[in-house]
Design a protein that fits this description.
By secondary structure, the protein is an alpha+beta fold. It contains three helices and eight strands; from the N terminus they run H-H-E-E-H-E-E-E-E-E-E. A hairpin with a 2-residue loop joins strand 7 and strand 8. The two termini are about 20 Å apart.
Length: about 200
């Protein structure tokens, strides 16, 4: 009986999230840059930004609709801390995710050539960081979100029915036949795995 109840709850959660996803896609006014195939709600940006191996300047090829100085604060922090290493910044989205009055940013690094030339299912986000801007000072929240055993091929913000704040949706894959998802919320200065 307990197994049956768990299965019913799991199915209900999946159906709830699928419904939230479809509603977010219908209500989203986001325009995805041509050729990348990534679904992102709000002001997410796929950028084929490259950093030279010597830690050179970020070459931005996509414009953010957020104030340039705020985006640059986040991107300068990433560069200063060496986050992403030799990988390219291929996803960047900033907004007040947890509704605490401070803007957060999700920055994901991967292979820019794959991101530009492959379908949505083939993009792999190797390192994913969540940052917060508190009064002009940037700090990292938690570790890289890509620390499980599965690859991550999709990132977006979703709104769950029982929460005011958004959560981070991570599309998971084993690159063969299995897919799934993870949900991560921001709780104070920590990241909370919700599913």
């Amino acid at each position: 009986m307990k197994k049956l109840r768990l299965i019913v709850y799991a199915l209900a959660l999946v159906m709830l999230l699928a419904g939230c996803s479809k509603a977010a896609e219908r209500n989203s006014s986001a325009v995805t840059p041509a050729g990348n195939g990534i679904n992102a709600e709000g002001d997410g940006e796929m950028a084929a930004e490259t950093a030279s191996a010597g830690g050179g300047e970020l070459a931005e090829k996509a414009e953010s609709s957020e104030p340039q100085d705020t985006a640059m604060l986040f991107k300068n922090y990433l560069k200063e801390k060496g986050l992403g290493g030799d990988l390219s910044l291929i996803y960047f989205q900033q907004e007040d995710i947890d509704l605490d009055g401070n803007e957060e940013a999700i920055a994901a690094f991967g292979d820019a050539e794959i991101a530009e030339n492959e379908s949505e299912e083939d993009i792999e986000f190797n390192e994913i960081y969540v940052l917060r801007n508190q009064g002009g000072k940037i700090h990292q929240i938690g570790d890289s979100l890509n620390s499980g055993g599965y690859g991550i091929n999709e990132i977006r913000l979703v709104q769950l029915e029982d929460r005011e704040e958004k959560v981070i949706y991570l599309g998971l894959t084993n690159w063969v036949s299995m897919t799934g998802f993870g949900l991560v919320g921001i709780s104070g200065d920590t990241l909370e795995n919700l599913a």
